[in-house]
Amino acid sequence: MDDFGGIVRGSPVRVARPSCQREVADALWRAARDGLPAAARGSGHSTAGESQAPGGVVIDMRGMRTVHDVGRDHVTVDAGATWREVLDATLPHALTPPVLTDHLDLTVGGTLSAGGVGGTSHVHGTQADNVSALEVVTRQGEIVTCSATRRRGLFDAVRGGMGRHGVITRATLRLVAAPERVLVCTVPCRDAGELVAFQRRVRADHVSGQAKPAEAGWRFEAKAAVFDGTRPPEGVAPSEVERLPYRDFADRMRPDVAELVRLGEWARPHPWAMVLLPAARAAQLIGEVLAGTAVRDVGVSGVVLVKALRIGRVPMLRSPADPVLFGMLRTASPGCRTAAEMAAANRRLHERAAAVGGTPYPAS
């Protein structure tokens, strides 16, 4: 049973497919009784084997994907529901989670366990910052409801905790008014420093950035999106402007994923590395890393992300105070570096990030 990363390989002894919290608790209890490792699996989008348990027990959470209640400012969902399924339930009420992942086919439990970063994280923090309550099955098989005012220690431990302290089975998520349309502005940047500075100063609802291959190294590009706006943010001179319905904007990766599936790139190994860097050191490190990086080092469908963001109180993330996400989302394409070589480059990136006060994302 592989994950999206395609690097860690191994078969579990058994797979549990629970339909309720009690069955999750039973699976964890049996794994502990038999001395076996256990891992919860949503969409299997982990990249370093986190959703696998070679020789152990995998708990497939997709059987628990009901959206239970959409309120005026919240929604309660099972952890196995994807963000696409959440959005399907909330948009008819003109509501949306304040932070969505770029790829909507990830599960709620999976991204809350990682933290959950999106283009609105510079305003709203991570997805884990926007949860009011959780139902969790602890590693001892206890079913617990926790929040900022009830069992706070467990609440803090499972958000961003990568399943080490329990399996999230249900979440109550904050909702905000959904925009009808989105104005997306593309802004070229000279270098990493200008990209980070732009993301820090621009007044936009959604901000993202990438480094893309160019004839002479790399070119940098920011995206600044305004919800229900008619003009670009003040002081922004975009090279391109696009207007999209909110649903199309939220699901903008779907055509790209379909094309990667068609080309076979989606099924190749993905040795991804993401780090949270202190903003004061981010541009220099990003520039140095990319100066020694060619297309064959990231793969033909690889992506380099640069995203200034804000993290609230998610202790398990252990982020720098003013974080910039730097992601080397590598794909081991034919003719490029091997997965093992890319994994070695990721280890060097983590070491360089740690040397300037950075931390891995998700938490290792």
From TrEMBL:
Keywords of this entry: FAD, Flavoprotein, Oxidoreductase
Pfam families, per the entry: Cytokin-bind, FAD_binding_4
Entry-linked Gene3D superfamilies: 3.30.465.10, FAD-linked oxidases, C-terminal domain (3.40.462.10), Uridine Diphospho-n-acetylenolpyruvylglucosamine Reductase, domain 2 (3.30.43.10)
Record flagged with keyword Oxidoreductase: yes
TM ranges: none
Cofactor(s) annotated in UniProt: FAD
Presence of keyword Oxidoreductase: yes
Entry similarity comment: Belongs to the oxygen-dependent FAD-linked oxidoreductase family.
Entry protein name: FAD-binding PCMH-type domain-containing protein
Source organism of the structure: Actinomadura keratinilytica
The organism's taxonomic lineage, starting at the top: Bacteria, Bacillati, Actinomycetota, Actinomycetes, Streptosporangiales
